[in-house]
């Protein structure tokens, strides 16, 4: 567990550094780093318990997407300010490296295996972000619809009083 915490702290620092490169405003760097560290921690826990790279990538991406949406709502900023740097921790960069490495060594079986794993991992990230966006959009739009219907009824009562 201690090692997982240290690795998550390393992810926090890496995401903050990547955020500087991406010119994320300084006041949001720590929050983007925390989001990436939490996503990486989820990834590590799920990978240790299940041994599945795909499940850990999916759940880590869900954690990052939820964290990015929470930060965006709190700070009233675009979700991408937190989402893009935080996803650094789970992007399958090593898989992309291995694809090229095995292609150059003419080991096509291994390169196709890593190609498949990399595409699946990238797909899991995309699906996780999509699902979280859809669910949170429904949750927040339902709240807005209720507020609009309440204010709409009050506006209707006001118009009736004006007519009388």
Q: How far apart are the termini? A: 71 Å
**Structural class, from secondary structure content?**
mainly alpha
- Tally of individual domains: 1
Q: Largest sheet at a glance?
A: none
Q: Which percent band covers the strand fraction?
A: under 5%
Which features would summarize this protein structure in a list?
164 residues; single chain; mainly alpha; 87% helix; globular; 6 helices
What does this entry look like structurally?
The protein has one domain (2-163). It is built from 6 helices and no strands. The protein has helices at 2-21, 26-50, 53-75, 80-86, 93-104, 108-163.
Summarize the structure.
The chain is mainly α and 164 residues long. It has one domain. It has six helices and no strands.
Question: What's the layout of helices and strands?
Answer:
Layout: H1 2-21, H2 26-50, H3 53-75, H4 80-86, H5 93-104, H6 108-163
Helix pairs in contact: 1-2, 2-3, 2-4, 3-4, 3-6, 5-6
């Amino acid at each position: 567990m201690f090692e997982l915490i240290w690795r998550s702290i390393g992810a926090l620092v890496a995401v903050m550094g990547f955020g500087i490169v991406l010119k994320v405003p300084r006041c949001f760097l720590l929050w983007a780093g925390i989001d990436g560290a939490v996503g990486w921690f989820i990834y590590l826990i799920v990978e240790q318990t299940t041994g599945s790279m795909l499940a850990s990538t999916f759940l880590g991406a869900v954690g990052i997407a939820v964290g990015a949406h929470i930060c965006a709502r709190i700070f009233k900023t675009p979700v991408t300010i937190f989402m893009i740097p935080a996803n650094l921790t789970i992007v399958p960069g090593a898989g992309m490296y291995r694809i090229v490495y095995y292609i150059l060594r003419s080991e096509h079986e291994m390169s196709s295996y890593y190609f498949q794993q990399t595409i699946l991992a990238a797909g899991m990230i995309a699906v996780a972000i999509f699902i979280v966006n859809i669910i949170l959009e429904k949750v927040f739009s339902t709240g807005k619809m209720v507020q609009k219907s309440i204010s709409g009824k009050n506006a209707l009562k006001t118009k009736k009083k004006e007519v009388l």
